[in-house]
Amino acid sequence: MTSTIRPGEVFASAQDFxxxxxxxxxxxxxxxxxxxxxxxxxxxxxxxxxxxxxxxSLRLLQRFPQAQVILMDYSPAMxxxxxxxxxxxxxxxxxxxFGEWALYPERFPAIEPVDACVSALAIHxxxxxxxxxxxxxxxxxxxxxxxxxxADPVVAPHAYSAALYQRVRQACSQAHPLPERxxxxxxxxxxxxxxxxxxxxxxxLQAAGFVGVDVVWQWFGFAIVGGHVPG
Length: 231
Ligand SMILES: C[S@@+](CC[C@H](N)C(=O)[O-])C[C@H]1O[C@@H](n2cnc3c(N)ncnc32)[C@H](O)[C@@H]1O
Hints:
CATH topology: Rossmann fold
Order of helices and strands: EHHEHEHEHEHEHEHEE
Number of helices: 8
Helix content: 25-40%
Bound molecules: S-adenosylmethionine
Strand content: 15-25%
């Protein structure tokens, strides 16, 4: 019987995530490196939304050995993997739904202002309306000059590029079998896939109050978009 998982957990067992995601997402490591490079070296406190097994936070701590990361995720199984991987003295784990946090931050442990917020492969599970709500909440938690960058799969703007993204992804997918996938059911504010275009994300970021919004990295159907708040 296939086990039921939450959107974003991807595999039936969280222990399989780190190996499986590299087979499923071409250029996963390059994308995470690019995401970590978006964070300025002066950052001391960084929020990682949908941080999963901790791969983004780990990269950030390798780049910034003095930093503190706050990782929020609603999956106990993914958080257990992150806990085993990240140094406790520099890590705060928050078990919770970032959609709920976007609407009701008072239900969560207080998060002091952060220098940067990042997310990878997670926010595309929210509706566009909730993405906008989340972007506003992120902005409210950033220090002046702080930035937000989101690495996520994106919808192609045209049918021609949709076919191209699909063809390239198939061509670049690794041949060896993936770990067992679970049966993803909607959970909290997330649903299996609610991808949007780069252009829509840029609009939502601008509407939330971010400036300098940009797409700084893209590999076919995966992009890093974000912006900052004035210093
Ligand atoms: C594909 S994993 C990516 C994990 C990590 N960011 C990485 O790139 O390795 C997506 C993560 O987002 C989490 N997630 C999805 N929707 C969420 C939500 N609404 N609130 C909190 N976590 C969520 C899932 O539990 C999962 O750990």
